[in-house]
Amino acid sequence: MRVLLQRVSRASVRIEGETVGAISTGLLLLVGFTDGDGPEQVDWMAEKVLGLRVFSDGEGKMNLSVQDVGGGLLVVSQFTLYGDARKGRRPSFVTAARPDVAIPLYESFVAALSDRSECSVETGRFGASMQVELVNDGPVTLMLERESA
């Protein structure tokens, strides 16, 4: 499981001109799954995201979590996080989980974030062509990964 986490001052996702998810201060999470991912990866990642201290405290140090600042979460499915562009000119996505595997994991991840925090959790739509707009705050961008056992 991979998550590209971006600290944002605002972010939104649109599908066919309609805004389906939007947050102000918080985290934009682009999320991808691979074969072998399961509940263990989802649980670990939810805890990691919610506890990660990437927001500044009163002294300007990254000591606060998204929960500490009352931020929101925008979760967007992103199978291209498992794109392999080492060979040729077209990325290969053979290691990305198929939708029948990835959709339940995505839904479980969103539910875990909602169940474990007071954060507002917004989403895109799995498999849709989406336009994601964000203002990266800092900028702060981290790649998080929890490999299958």
The pLDDT mean sits at 96
Main β-sheet: number of strands, strand sense, barrel status? 6 strands, mixed
The helix count comes to 2
CATH superfamily (homologous) name: D-tyrosyl-tRNA(Tyr) deacylase
Silhouette = globular
Q: How many DSSP E strands?
A: 8
**Which structural category fits the helices and strands?**
alpha/beta
- What is Rg? 15 Å
Q: Class in CATH? A: Alpha Beta
Detail the topology: elements first, then pairings.
Blueprint: E1 2-15, E2 18-23, E3 26-32, H1 39-51, E4 55-56, E5 62-64, E6 72-77, H2 99-115, E7 121-123, E8 131-145
Parallel strand pairs: 3-6, 6-7
Antiparallel strand pairs: 1-2, 1-3, 1-8, 4-5
Q: What would you note in describing this structure?
A:
The protein has 149 residues and is of the alpha/beta class. The chain has a single domain (2-132), classed as D-tyrosyl-tRNA(Tyr) deacylase (D-tyrosyl-trna(Tyr) Deacylase, Chain: A). The protein has helices at 39-51, 99-115; strands spanning 2-15, 18-23, 26-32, 55-56, 62-64, 72-77, 121-123, 131-145. The strands form two sheets. Strands 1, 2, 3, 6, 7 and 8 form a six-stranded mixed β-sheet that branches. A two-stranded antiparallel sheet has the order 4-5. Strand 1 and strand 2 form a beta hairpin. The N and C termini lie close together (11 Å).
